[in-house]
Design goal:
The chain is of the alpha/beta class. β2 and β3 form a beta hairpin. The longest helix is centred in the C-terminal third of the chain and has 18 residues. The radius of gyration is 23 Å and the shape is globular. The structure holds zinc ion. The site of zinc ion has 8 residues, from loops.
Length: 311
Amino acid sequence: MTEVQAEAAFRKVRWPDTQGEPVCPSCGSPACYDCRRPNGAPRWRCKACRADYSITSGTLFAHHKMPLRSYLAAIAIFCNEVKGKSMLALSRDLGTQYKTAFVLAHKMREAMATEMKGRIVGGPGKVAETDGAYFGGYVKPANYRENRRDRRLGRNQNGKRQCVVVVRERNGHSLPAVFRNEAQALSFIRQRVSKETTLNADEAGLWNPLHGKYEMRRINHEEAYSDGFACTNQAESFFSRMRRAEIGHHHHLAGPYLLRYAQEASWREDNRRLANGEQINAVTTLAMRSKPSVDFCGYWQRAQAPKEAAE
Ligand SMILES: [Zn+2]
């Protein structure tokens, strides 16, 4: 694909109502001068409010530096994967630095996450499942046996372990969230699962308070994974995908971006039956509709600067 074709493709996605004709993002006026940058990159000046803007102004890819073609390529490569994409591999595919690929992939996850904003799972007559799984906080065993500690005990853990809880409607959408432990997820479930839903959960006692709000079905995994009545297998298959992304691609899913990886797994799970081209289209559209990145835009000028800047 040439740069001109990539430009046309992005314009169609960005301004679908005008068949790709530019519309000012600050005042909404379609009247503009064509004033490309000296290097040929597309740019317009609004006749009404005099603002300069490009194809990506005010979207997730705002302030972009690479040619537009690379962004399309990145989305395609990212969507071709089933469980996830290693940033190192993405940087090699695109010919960029590792950090560039890292930020780019996280912006795509952010775009996927916008689809889940305010999502409510279930409804009258619908069935949903919930489950949790732990990520991060790995403690390496000491070399010599006599120095090893029982890593199951709380005092020998490092406190970095986090719990991903997912609610998933059968044959519907899923929604993940991150907590310190499963018990803290109860209010999230009450908010995001509709009241008349039949909710499936495993035998863990911490789900018991949910009986007050939902018709609950419980399955004891020590006896069976499904008794033809209750099961949490679709929630488990979300975790299967996420765990495989951890083992096969990322090796370490933890820390502040754990939720983003969970949202990526959730998006891939929900859209798994979409054709490859439709997935690419969907992510491009989401990115063009999203605001500039909350995680990776202007972080260097925010008041609550990262630790090293505060010191
Ligand atoms: Zn304007």
